[in-house]
């Protein structure tokens, strides 16, 4: 094992010395001030002190981070479809949270679909929490859903601790989570603004997609034509207009169209309360390289061309795009229609929860970007989005959630070795840089035999 761990003190403390439950020491520790040699003292699951390496902090348990490793804050993924209960054969809390932990993600926020029932009222939230409470290996929080007819439930869900509300502007893919019209979205935005909640939007225009050529068969180009950039651009413009009008905090999910970056930039400069995310598949995969019939690559909105990808990276670097999250949206292999390779009938979703950090680090490294910037996009900013003030960075007073990451190690993706439930991935066989060797939550190692993750709620 590359990490050295000592149980018991290396020297006996004097009566005046402070002792901790855990001390972590390393030459490369990523704090809010950057990567530097540091010692971290942890007590009762919290970071109590961060000091220069050599401070000699005393603890019952010491973790010495190896010289080829960087101690990172645990990452936060605010876009995960766990699907339990109701579609647990697609994914469940046990498999999803193990995948998260193996990828250095110590906190996830679960989407209100594709579980049955969807999280659109308090009863459904209670059912979801009961399912998660027995099988969570990382911290788990929940988004609520905004659908036609549940406006009366939004405040109650907010008060029960959901982090905000998701809506669709076109068919969601499952009938039990219907979409909102733009007018209905505006009504719900006004309601959410009254108690300072957040509306997160799957922004694709249903009319444009409905009038586009429908995908048939295995040609990826045909599928791409069926989800044109203009569908995203139009819907994002509608989100911006309604957020400006209502004053709500709004968040655009899984941005794939770089055409929308300028209007997003202008809206932010104007003061519209807008944030934006994108996903590893839009930043690492290219439409030009997707084989016909390769439905593992199908997601909505779709993976686009190289020039589009380059502009998304530029949007990240300029701060127009705030976060990188997985949009982990798995299904059973038969629903991906692997045998026939028909993009018209295959489920649209990419399962990448375990691979997000190495995927983005591999690409960022090629571009001369620093690991600190990757963690900003995948830890710090998603924490801010969800209002998780104790997550996402290594600082005094924060939760003691960490990932031990070997950035120069490489590995080849093998779907049979991933924790998510169904072994299918567009990254199969891809060589990636960066290996997560250990995840720590509240000062304790994740034990893949014992679920000790906590359910979390919106902070007051």
Automatic annotation (TrEMBL):
Which residues does the UniProt record annotate as the domain Amidohydrolase-related?
A: 70-443
Residues making up the signal peptide according to the UniProt record = none
Return the EC number. 3.5.2.5
Pathway listed? Nitrogen metabolism; (S)-allantoin degradation; allantoate from (S)-allantoin: step 1/1
One Gene Ontology MF term: allantoinase activity
Fetch the Pfam families from UniProt: Amidohydro_1 (PF01979)
Q: Which domain of life is it from?
A: Bacteria
Q: Which UniProt keywords apply?
A: Hydrolase, Metal-binding, Zinc
Q: Which residues lie in coiled coils?
A: none
| Cofactor(s) this protein cannot do without | Zn(2+)
Say which family it is in: Belongs to the metallo-dependent hydrolases superfamily. Allantoinase family.
Kindly provide the name given to this protein in its UniProt entry. Answer: allantoinase
Which organism was this protein described from? Glutamicibacter arilaitensis (strain DSM 16368 / CIP 108037 / IAM 15318 / JCM 13566 / NCIMB 14258 / Re117)
